């Protein structure tokens, strides 16, 4: 008899799968952020992205701690959605818009990532709480707060970035000012 491997039989399995997806998401973001930082020209944007890169390293470690807390080995489950969001960011970079417009586009792309992460963490928190993993829920909550504040920093950076983007739209294609 063919044996299927039903990985999700319990709510605990589902939570574990969520953590495997989150582990993958944080890993993909760690790879994607340096490319975005390299392309950012606005200092506030660069700072926001760089700060979040450092945070993401710690967030990934927190996921490892959670695996440990629930007695599971750290494992990734490939998340198609984060790869899509990263591909969207790469697409706009590849179109080589003027740097002021690229900054605005990078903010949009980064905010999509932040909100995606927030949605993942919010679901994980509610499942961790339901399963009685109070310690894990607390760690997840810490990361959720960081994602929220990363998003806010992008909103702040957008104030000047959008102003500069507005000025750029009317400009000609020449390199001179
Ligand atoms: Fe994150």
Mean pLDDT: 94
Structural class: mainly alpha
Compute the number of structural domains.
1
Spatial shape = elongated
Count of helical segments?
5
Helix percentage range:
over 70%
Structural overview:
With 177 residues, the chain is an all-alpha fold. It has a single domain (11-165), classed as Up-down Bundle (Ferritin), CATH 1.20.1260. It is built from 5 helices and no strands. The protein has helices spanning 11-39, 43-69, 80-94, 99-130, 134-170. Helix 1 runs parallel beside helix 3 (80-94), helix 1 (11-39) runs antiparallel to helix 4 and helix 2 (43-69) packs antiparallel against helix 5. The mean pLDDT is 94. Bound molecules: fe (ii) ion.
Keywords:
single chain; 177 residues; Ferritin; 79% helix; elongated; binds fe (ii) ion
Could you provide a short overview of the structure?
This protein is mainly alpha-helical and 177 residues long. Helix content is 79%, strand content 0%.
Write the layout of secondary structure elements.
Elements: H1 11-39, H2 43-69, H3 80-94, H4 99-130, H5 134-170
This protein binds fe (ii) ion.
């Amino acid at each position: 008899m063919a044996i299927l491997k039903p990985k999700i039989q319990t709510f605990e399995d589902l939570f574990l799968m969520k953590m495997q997806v989150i582990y993958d998401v944080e890993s993909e973001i760690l790879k994607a952020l340096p490319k975005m930082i390299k392309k950012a020209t606005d200092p506030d944007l660069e700072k926001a992205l760089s700060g979040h890169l450092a945070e993401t390293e710690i967030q990934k470690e927190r996921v490892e701690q959670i695996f440990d807390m629930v007695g599971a080995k750290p494992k990734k489950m490939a998340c198609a959605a984060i790869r899509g969001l990263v591909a969207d960011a790469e697409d706009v970079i590849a179109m080589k818009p003027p740097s002021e417009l690229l900054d605005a586009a990078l903010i949009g792309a980064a905010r999509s990532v932040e909100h995606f992460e927030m949605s993942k963490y919010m679901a994980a928190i509610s499942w961790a709480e339901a399963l009685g993993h109070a310690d894990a829920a607390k760690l997840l909550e810490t990361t959720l707060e960081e994602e929220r504040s990363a998003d806010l920093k992008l909103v702040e950076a957008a104030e000047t970035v959008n102003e500069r983007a507005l000025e750029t739209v009317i400009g000609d294609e020449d390199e001179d000012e």
